[in-house]
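Sample 1 of the test manifest.
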Amino acid sequence: MSTGDPAATAPRAPKALGGSGGALSAPPDNQFDPKVRTALSNLLLAMGDDEFVLGYWDSEWTGIAPVLEEDVAFASLAQDEIGHAQALYQLLADLEGGDPDELAYGRQPEGYRHARLLDHPRTDWAFSVARRFLYDTADAARLDALAGSAYEPLAAVVAKMRREETYHLLHMHAWLERLAGGGEEPRARLTAALERLWPDALCVLDGIEGDELLAEAGVLAEPMAAVRRRWLAALAPELARLGLPGPPAGHTGPCRGPGRSKDFRWLWEQLTMVRRSDPEAVW
Amino acid sequence: MTSQVRALTEDAVWGALAEVPDPEIPVVSVVDLGLVHAVGLDGDRLRVELLPTFVGCPALELIRASVAERLAGMAPQVEVEMTFAVPWTSDRITPEGRRKLGDSGFAPPSRPLLPTIGVRPTATCPWCGSADTTLENLFGPTLCRTVFFCNRCRQPFEQFKAV
């Protein structure tokens, strides 16, 4: 989205042609009935918005993280997420028509479908670590469930994303451990952040209308409720070992808007500022 | 006598691609890095597909445009596009590419390919060859770099990220 003409960069489907090297890409077919296709669009928008909004929140640490290494790390994490959002918005545009930049910057705050975990501001370092730990581990469970997706363009992007997310997971597990064992104050802040964020973290693997249909069609390995259970089961031993709070029994209220927090509205004002001041701007 | 226009071959295309440097690490070409997924030639139409190293790499369009510029005129119709058809991995970097990276002060990617919890990347110092190095930061000045420090020659250095 900041790299010139995104339409020129983004992968797309060409006509078949023989040649050397790997096999040239084949065009995707319109393989799904309208209900599955709508559910797939819901999924792509939700995932794209999750990555996009988290990327913007975490980019705010650039220059003010607790140590220089984390300025660099969080800038890289943010750049990865915004890149993933671009790829997911492109998949959505390929499916439904439209322009990835318009999806990213051309909507009102109520039009975004990120999980409400991403409605919170960056707050303090422990809060950002707790949020990113919960998000990255939930996202990893979601990507696992998409790795063998019947929608091949999505499976291809997910294969690439998972390799990059491995670094995110490694980094966030290390930080969770560091803050949990870092003395009274870091531990207290981390614990408070986890308690505050847990109900909203459950929403990362929820709020996607039609996810059961996607599971039936093989787009998703299993419905989101099953992905969520698998995620929680995988996290439980680590949280128990570190003596950190686990999830509540459930969550209530809408997971992905349309009501949006004051903090997200502030972020939206920031991230759409250039676009709103000059919709034709390229950079 | 009319001059004979020699037919374009895929070898000639690969040769031209080998002259296109990576914009961030210009000692290596797009072929050295294994960025070229496929070359297709059909009559007037030449199509090249490239793989993104990192999904969010801001140099992707620059790489695509550099390749398109180098190939312009080689066929009446030249298409250069990015694809996710297969994931680019650092194992696609050729032996020649790994050597060039080392010569210019970048440690080539370590193996195993991906770090896992408890198994972190390791690197040999590209300056003095010592294996006594410390991982300073999994992340670096660009998405594809990791920062190390050599405990023997006391120099920081970067490794092309194993991914």
